[in-house]
Write a sequence for this structure.
């Protein structure tokens, strides 16, 4: 029994990075997600990084089967899930071994000792238990593999089974609540509110009272264990982060993107039609949209990627907002249809949640290597506007922006998310609906051209390729509109009348016009915002340019370099095609341009080609977000060279 | 888990064009003829089919603007350019997929797919069988000339084995598809076969296909005078009677010594399939014509059911959606 007079110390931290790691079946994603929700409701700023194998259930207890969830919570705005965890919760030997290398010295390690059996140790490649003080062959205490860490060996499973005995579950089912015990313990350590998780468990297991009660009991037992055991001498306080006023929720990129598509339907008045084929890491958008039929959303799970985009394009011809969602391999298959959409000049949204490539690559890991595919991956001159969100919450706005461009310019638009944005989450300020842009489909309803036989000089026929002077967009005339019957197709069309044309001059004109139309999108963009702490001496010497999900790590690295007393400017691009009109002038203002990307230099290549600037890449393709500290070192080298 | 689809409260829809607005007053073939010059080879069977379709569409009594023809790639896929309706000449093999989106998005359209043996059965085979199994409300005209015409004469997936073509100088070695058997295997609800040169039969089959609610596949034997001339000559002319059998409900048919009365409405497709294997005589007409809820009707029904179960303006509902779940307020 603890001493009744024993009062634990509460220490204040400005932030912490926690990683929950276990077997694929241990419920680590759920555990991390609950801790995240608790922290979000508490008011911390946060960024998450789920990391799981492509196999649904890799062999139990093995290194390939380890699944983890990392969350960075803080009392200030955070930009990354953290380069390295301060706290690791490891549910078995494999989870310990797989994650140990990422820990800095002094990190806290909470280990479920229950699974440290000879068999499980062997599966993880341990000859002897690393929990033994003299493990590692030296035979000397204090020199084992865990010597550098604050290790808390706890029989989480055993205590869970004891705590939930009264509910009469099988031993296996009882042990499954161990993740909630671990969550309870860590929730105590960081003073998290418990109500959201109890309420969640009540909802989730409403139909299985014994499981519900066992999970809630395990969760509370974990909390109580932390409070009473002498193994943990203090808990920590991380105060809420200041945020602008408003109503917030925590949101993942895929959910925000799906909501953005629903919002695009509401704000345009168009029914949304999603044609999609399941693919990691994009499937959650299909799942989510299939729940929102009440918004007039139709979801079509097609026979393949090609049919998914084909049906979406057919629906666009019919007057819907056609959308297809996929990942890189799916884009490869959809290319011909996207080219058709370029020729038909119809609105179409193509969402590419990028993952590691080439080929099947790393399905559950992140990468940014589809930019050039989005840009050029079609036959002929087939330009397509490209929009990329910067953070999970930004996927909502990016989806609306992509829809605006698609509908206004009658063009397919690529939306480049990635696996990190898709599954990662952050607090998101819920927008007021009236703040959201409106999108005007502006359907054609009347003839637009005067034929030679017009009796009164008024338009009496419909030309499907007569363009709007400002946007160069062609009219969108829906089947069912009398008098506007017309044929579209993949063969080259004559400008204006839209009939098949093999005329050389017309083809040259049409190729240039389609390119000019996409270029016109740039005229609708706001000026770029460069974050440059310029002073009397002028702008900084180095500009760091990024796009997509590298926003967090780049911003964190830039801040780190500035804190060290150096000047560096930052620019993040949302529009990759066309580039904003002022980009060239901005790039030329700086002596050096650094482009960090999770590919081998795709944006940097485009910038060099377009603006003849000596953009230098910092390229990492590990399937994980760029580490801010690593990037800060690189930026530091650049700014030191110049000073 | 499954949901019982048998009692969906779907309104009884019997006709393929039930929800398509109708036209008051007569229409003419001329109104359905676009101003584009037809550019098939002289003597091509496609001319006859085009004439028949232009002649028969006015009889459907639909508003012309509510008819859409979607095609893939190949000689026959130029078809939409010559009809003054809405149309899309799409990409190779994908017309059934594009038409699925179109038909699902709009119940008020009569959607037609024009395709060939290469387009539908080679590059687009996957989309064809899935459109048929889903029973999307489409009328699919499959022009079968047993050859690749537009690419100048390679064998097709319906070419007979041993065919000498540009790409098979020693004879083709692929076993051909029988389109009617394939469609029946995919559990299509309407399957028929007709011949380009027999306008009366073609029109009657197309009329039945248009009236069918669900995916209707019509194989049209079509002559390519340039690369596969005379492929169907045996079935044409005065003495064709012996080699051709025109299917009618109740017609007594004998296959492999077994005799029965043809029933296109039989749910079990076994007898219809057996009939589709017959090569002498070749059956033409309707093999199968049964009712099953269509994909597009079911998809729209799920949407309208969900819409009926909700209240408020779309903006109010969007605000509720975005504000759901665990939220907190910063003052």
């Amino acid at each position: 029994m603890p001493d009744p007079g024993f009062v634990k110390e509460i220490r204040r931290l400005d932030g912490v990075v926690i990683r929950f790691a276990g077997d694929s079946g241990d419920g680590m994603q759920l555990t991390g997600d609950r801790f995240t929700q608790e922290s979000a409701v508490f008011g911390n700023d946060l960024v998450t990084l789920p990391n799981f194998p492509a196999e649904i259930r890799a062999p139990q207890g093995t290194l390939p089967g380890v699944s983890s969830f990392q969350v960075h919570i803080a009392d200030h705005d955070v930009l990354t899930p953290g380069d390295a965890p301060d706290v690791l919760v490891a549910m078995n030997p494999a989870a310990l071994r797989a994650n140990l290398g990422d820990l800095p010295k002094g990190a806290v390690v909470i280990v479920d000792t229950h699974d440290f059996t000879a068999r499980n140790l062997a599966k993880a490649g341990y000859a002897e238990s690393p929990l033994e003080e003299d493990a590692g062959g030296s035979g000397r205490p204090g020199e084992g593999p865990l010597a550098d860490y604050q290790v808390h060996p706890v029989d989480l499973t055993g205590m869970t089974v004891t705590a939930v005995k009264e509910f009469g579950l099988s031993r296996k089912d009882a042990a499954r609540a161990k993740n909630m015990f671990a969550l309870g313990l860590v929730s105590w350590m960081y003073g998290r509110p418990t109500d959201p998780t109890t309420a969640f468990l009540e909802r989730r297991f409403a139909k299985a009272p014994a499981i519900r009660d066992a999970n809630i009991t395990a969760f509370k037992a974990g909390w109580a264990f932390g409070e009473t055991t002498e193994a943990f001498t203090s808990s920590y306080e991380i105060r809420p982060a200041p945020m602008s006023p408003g109503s917030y929720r925590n949101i993942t990129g895929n959910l925000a993107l799906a909501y953005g598509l629903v919002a695009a339907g509401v704000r345009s008045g168009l029914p949304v039609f999603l044609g999609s084929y399941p693919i990691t890491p994009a499937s959650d958008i299909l799942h989510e949209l299939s729940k929102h039929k009440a918004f007039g959303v139709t979801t079509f799970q097609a026979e393949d990627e090609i049919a998914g985009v084909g049906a979406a394009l057919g629906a666009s011809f019919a007057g819907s907002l056609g959308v297809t969602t996929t990942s890189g391999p799916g884009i490869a298959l959809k290319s011909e249809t996207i080219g058709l959409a370029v020729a038909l000049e119809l609105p179409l949204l193509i969402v590419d949640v990028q993952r590691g490539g080439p080929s099947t690559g790393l399905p559950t890991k992140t990468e940014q290597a589809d930019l050039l595919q989005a840009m050029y991956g079609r036959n002929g001159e087939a330009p397509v506007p490209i929009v990329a969100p910067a953070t999970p919450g930004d996927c909502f706005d990016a989806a609306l922006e992509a829809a605006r461009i698609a509908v206004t310019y009658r063009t397919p638009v690529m939306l480049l998310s990635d696996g990190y944005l898709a599954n990662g989450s952050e607090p998101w300020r819920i927008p007021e609906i009236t703040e959201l842009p409106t999108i005007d489909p502006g359907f054609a309803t009347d003839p637009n051209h005067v034929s030679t036989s017009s009796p009164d000089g008024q338009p009496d026929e419909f030309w499907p390729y007569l363009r709007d002077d400002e946007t160069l967009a062609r009219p969108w005339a829906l089947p069912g509109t009398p008098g506007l019957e017309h044929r579209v197709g993949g063969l080259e069309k004559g400008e204006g009348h839209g009939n098949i044309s093999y005329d050389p001059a017309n083809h040259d004109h049409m190729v240039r016009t389609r390119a000019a139309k996409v270029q016109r999108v740039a005229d609708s963009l706001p000026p770029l915002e460069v974050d440059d702490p310029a002073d009397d001496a002028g702008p900084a010497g180095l500009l760091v340019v990024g796009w997509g999900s590298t926003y967090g790590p780049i911003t964190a690295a830039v801040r780190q370099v500035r804190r060290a007393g150096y000047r560096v400017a930052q620019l993040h691009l949302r529009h990759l095609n066309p580039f904003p009109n002022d980009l060239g002038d901005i790039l030329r203002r700086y002596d050096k341009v650094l482009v960090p990307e999770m590919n081998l230099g795709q944006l940097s290549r485009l910038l060099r080609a377009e603006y003849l600037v000596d953009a230098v890449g910092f390229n990492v393709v590990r399937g994980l977000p760029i580490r801010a500290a690593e990037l800060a070192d690189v930026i530091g080298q650049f700014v030191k060279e110049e000073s | 888990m499954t949901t019982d689809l048998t009692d969906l409260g779907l309104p009884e829809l019997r006709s393929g064009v039930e929800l398509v607005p109708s036209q008051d007053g007569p229409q003419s073939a001329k109104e359905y003829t676009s101003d584009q010059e037809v550019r098939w080879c002289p003597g091509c069977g496609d001319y006859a089919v085009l004439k028949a379709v232009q002649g028969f569409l006015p009889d459907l009594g639909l508003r012309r603007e509510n008819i859409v023809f979607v095609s893939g790639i190949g000689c026959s896929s130029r078809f939409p350019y010559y009809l003054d309706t809405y149309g899309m000449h799409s990409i190779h093999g994908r017309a059934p997929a594009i038409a699925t989106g179109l038909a699902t998005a709009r119940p008020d359209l009569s959607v037609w797919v024009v395709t060939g043996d290469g387009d539908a059965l080679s590059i687009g085979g996957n989309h064809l069988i899935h459109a048929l199994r889903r029973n999307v409300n489409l009328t699919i005209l499959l022009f079968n000339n047993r050859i690749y015409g537009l690419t100048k004469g390679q064998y097709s997936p319906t070419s007979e084995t041993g065919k000498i073509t540009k790409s098979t100088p020693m004879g083709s070695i692929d076993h051909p598809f029988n389109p009617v058997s394939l469609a029946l295997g995919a559990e299509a609800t309407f399957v028929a076969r007709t011949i380009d040169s027999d306008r009366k039969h073609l029109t009657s089959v197309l009329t039945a296909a248009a009236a069918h609610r669900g995916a209707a596949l019509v194989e049209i034997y079509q002559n390519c005078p340039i690369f596969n001339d005379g492929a169907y000559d045996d079935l044409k002319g005065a003495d064709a009677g012996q080699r051709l059998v025109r299917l009618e409900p109740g017609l007594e048919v004998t296959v492999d010594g077994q005799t029965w009365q043809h029933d296109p409405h039989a749910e079990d497709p076994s007898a219809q399939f057996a009939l589709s294997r017959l090569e002498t005589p070749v059956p033409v007409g309707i093999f199968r014509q049964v009712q099953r809820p269509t994909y597009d009707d079911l998809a729209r029904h799920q949407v309208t059911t969900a819409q009926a179960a909700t209240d408020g303006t779309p903006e109010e509902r969007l605000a509720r959606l975005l504000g759901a779940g665990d939220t907190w307020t910063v003052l």
The longest helix of chain B spans residues 45-60. Chain B has nine helices and eleven strands. Chain B has a mean pLDDT of 95.
